[in-house]
Amino acid sequence: MSNLDVRILGTGIVSRTLALALARRGLRVALQARSAAVPSQPDLRAYALNPASVALLTDLKVWDALPADARTEVHDMRVAGDAPGAQLALSAWQQAVPALAWIVDAAALEATLDAASRFAPNVELQEEPAPAPLTVVAEGKASAAREQLGVRFERHAYGHSALAARLVSDRPHAGVAHQWFRSPDVLALLPFDRPEVGHSFGLVWSQPEEQARNWLTAEPEALEAVLNAMTGGAAGTLRLASDRAVWPLALGHASDVCGPGWVLVGDAAHVVHPLAGQGLNLGLADVMALTDVLASRESWRSTGDHDLLKRYARRRRAATWAMARTTDGLWQLFAQNPPGLRELRNAGLSLVEHLPPLKRWLVGRALDV
């Protein structure tokens, strides 16, 4: 493809979504990604998408192309602290929205985006560098291109890892997500329809690294026993139905997100704790903002114009900063246990539960990042 407007580096959800979004607005895009290695084990990632992200994927004709069992609506969320009575219940009905979130199978979403990008007009798939006025770095948190640009990535390791697996319950999930904030761990069960429609959950258990590694190799019966004890039957009797995976957790952000002829999006620009399920939503919000900035530029501006890219940076700065501070603050509040903090955080959960306007405001922030 000659006379490219943008080249995008990366193989993931954010890079492919951006390619489709830019092409839909008439820009000529090269998606530069080396062939991905065959994974050594099944992809256990499950993402929580907010209405804005789902609307974007729907507009790109991707959402409706997903297999029916690869996306599950969350109608209610039940959050518990580590003291009796410290509970918070959230519902789509109270927010007057169709769903609080949609849980989507990461592998299925990537496969659908890959198929769409292969047949999209104005998108060329390349393995070798292609000259373009703008290079978008969407390679993820370990981006080599970001490092070559000389951009610092300021990373704070939590000393925790996330343990992921798929579970099956003897009871229907009914579209209810569960989360337990305990010290020092956070346990989340995301309603899912794989491997068993209506009865599955995606497990995301944030815990100290050594503990997570132990559970990675523990006997399935031992893991099932501890999960059933921790959840107290709130999600039914749980059974392990997949392999397990572990990855380290950190808070991070790039020292700069743009420069003359380049820009960072998604995890290449910012990484947050997964306890609020907002990491991919932040990346897809980057896609929407950058697409709008590039498509609405003055006719005389190049897509790589630094002043133009600064508009994107300004548009995303407040939202990404706020989400990073929110997720980090929640982790600091619930993962540590100095004197008096336990009572304070549990009282806070109860307070939000009994103040519906505050509850609606907090949920509204998560529905649109």
From TrEMBL:
Entry cofactors: FAD
Pfam families in UniProt: FAD_binding_3 (PF01494)
The organism's place on the tree of life at top rank: Bacteria
Keyword Zinc: no
Keyword annotations: FAD, Flavoprotein, Monooxygenase, Oxidoreductase
Domain FAD-binding, first and last residues per copy: 132-326
Annotated metabolic or biological route of this protein: Cofactor biosynthesis; ubiquinone biosynthesis
SUPFAM superfamilies referenced in this protein's UniProt entry, alphabetically: FAD/NAD(P)-binding domain (SSF51905)
Gene Ontology molecular-function annotations: monooxygenase activity
InterPro entries the record matches: FAD-bd, FAD/NAD-bd_sf, Ubi_Hdrlase_CS, UbiH/COQ6, UbiH/COQ6_monooxygenase
Family affiliation: Belongs to the UbiH/COQ6 family.
Alphabetical list of PANTHER family matching this protein: UBIQUINONE BIOSYNTHESIS MONOOXYGENASE COQ6, MITOCHONDRIAL (PTHR43876:SF7)
Protein name: FAD-dependent monooxygenase
Lineage per the UniProt record: Bacteria, Pseudomonadati, Pseudomonadota, Betaproteobacteria, Burkholderiales
